[in-house]
Amino acid sequence: MGKSNTKLENKIEIRGESPFDIMLRMQDRRAALHQNAVRGMKDLNLSLQDVIRHLHAGLQASAMRKVELREREMHERQLAEERKLEEKQRERRRREEQQNREKKINRYIAIGLVCFAYLVSSYSDSMVSMSSLIIISCLIIAISILLQPGK
User: Fold this and answer.
1) How far apart are CA 52 and CA 120, in angstroms?
2) Is there a domain that residue 98 lies in?
């Protein structure tokens, strides 16, 4: 220890500074270092706040994108359901139209059979048994066509 003090004192004497001047200079250096450290901490604090702000903004943007994506998916699902419902309604209408056409055709066939039976009965005096058989069979077919379930 004594040797280091002697060396320090020798260096001080070489520069021509007193120990008090050295102590003031060291305190100035410490104060400057402290001020730099405080300034750096403030800068670091500001930059951390900026980072936090950016992260917060990014999280908000991400959450908004997720909400928009969910809303878009829900809208697409709703549109798909509406399309399916419209397709089912179109199919149902098509089936009903087909059934109505078949009903009309069957009515015309039944009316034709009744007319044919009437013509057979009015023009065939000689074959009464055959004409009555034709008349009865035409009427039975006409009635069965008109009474078909679902048509």
Assistant:
1) 101
2) yes
DSSP percent split of the chain into helix, strand, coil, nearest 5: 90, 0, 10
Between CA 10 and CA 13, with CA 11 as vertex, the angle to 5 degrees is 65
Amino acid at 99: Q
What is the domain count for the chain? 1
Could you list the beta-strand ranges (E) of 2-136: none
Separation of alpha carbons 119 and 142, rounded Å: 15
Query: Per-residue pLDDT tens for 75-119?
Result: 999 999 999 999 999 999 999 999 888 888 888 887 877 787 777
**Parent domain of 119:** 2-146
What is the C-alpha to C-alpha distance for residues 46 and 51, in angstroms, rounded to an integer?
9
Residue 151 lies in a domain: no
Q: Please tell me the distance from the alpha carbon of residue 103 to that of residue 97, in angstroms, as a whole number.
A: 10
Note the pTM of the prediction, 2 decimals. Answer: 0.43
**Cβ proximity of 102 and 151 under 8 Å:** yes
